[in-house]
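Changelog entry: the YCII-related domain-containing protein record was regenerated in this release. Current contents:
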Amino acid sequence: MKYMMFVCSDTAPDTDTSDWPDIEAWVAENDARGRRLDGDALAPTSAATTVRVRNGELLVSDGPFTETKEVIVGYDVLDCADLDEAIEVARAHPMARSGRLELRPFAGPDGTPA
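Regenerated structure tokens:
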């Protein structure tokens, strides 16, 4: 099952001072096991553009639409057997401690998880 893992900042990071996982090691392991299909960091929100159409009018604005302290900073596309495996993959990601990770299955043609 494919999952989009949104890598997000968070205002309340983990306060544990033990060693944090290494992102390069996490990427290498999950690439080698075929669980990570794609992923990358995103440019800061100052580089974002929001596009909306309201009453037929195109509205384009700089940055994210909402003012929030938690922002998407990257993504990974995962291919896991099930949600439990996806959670274990996310748990080992360094941003699980300093940010938060949102897992969302890709939808099939009928809108249900594919």
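The chain has one domain: 2-6+21-105.
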